[in-house]
Amino acid sequence: MTTPALPIAPSVARRLDGAPLVLFLDIDGTLAPIAPRPEYAIVPGETQALLAKLAATKNVHVVVVTGRSAADGRRLACADDTAWVIGNHGIEVAAPGKEPEVRMDVARFAPEIATANERLLLLAAESDRQGVLVENKRWTLSVHYRLAHPRIVPDLAARVTAIAGELGLRVTHGKEVLELRPPLAIDKGVASVALAEQLGATHDGASLLAAGDDRTDEDMFRALRELQHRAVTVRVGADIPYVETGAEFSVPDTDAMRELLNGILALRSGGNS
What we know:
Blueprint: E1 3-4, H1 10-15, E2 21-25, H2 45-55, E3 60-65, H3 70-77, E4 84-87, E5 92-94, E6 101-102, H4 110-125, E7 133-136, E8 141-144, H5 153-166, E9 170-174, E10 177-181, H6 188-198, E11 207-212, H7 215-227, E12 232-236, E13 249-251, H8 254-268
Parallel strand pairs: 1-13, 2-3, 2-11, 3-4, 11-12, 12-13
Antiparallel strand pairs: 4-5, 5-6, 7-8, 8-10, 9-10
Helix pairs in contact: 2-8, 4-5, 6-7
């Protein structure tokens, strides 16, 4: 069971006062309310402004961590020159103002991803697959079924898993989405740890915070807590129907997450946010 993250308790504030402080923030369901279609998602303007203020604060790094492509994550967060972006569940990493860099071992799976995309589009076009959306993120694929009838989901999952298996790809499950990826040891947790090391945030005097709402964020929670015992992990969402969360704290929704980030900004700027 998680503990409410608001108001920020003094004991938690002390865990967030280190240098540097690195904030690892998921987008969909954490910074942006869940939308019926991926292209409809919006990070509110006030949240975007808050992220920019945090990124401009001394000894604070903002990292957007998303299953979307790095370019799409950067667009949504309006973080071109301010925040780091970890995209495609860790496959891409972009420094502020820089182009995304892709892991070298991912490139050899480009033909398989392209073939899977073609086959998934045909699957989604079948008459009984209305509401199934295929999102091509170049290095990974997402099959969204939020708009589909629940009765088709078991067969859809079986068909998607079969396609992935035939092409040597792997499937992960999220909130009403199936993700196809290269079969590599990479996820949000692995990528977040690597970036925390790069930013010099692995020692006891540093601070880490991770916030997310979905299965893939559990990797990030677990990895950062193993890396740094002071790390603060926050699950966004009132209920947890899909998995027992490893997050220590919780907030009910994206508005409360923004309130938490405002509180962190106040802490880091001496109470003047």
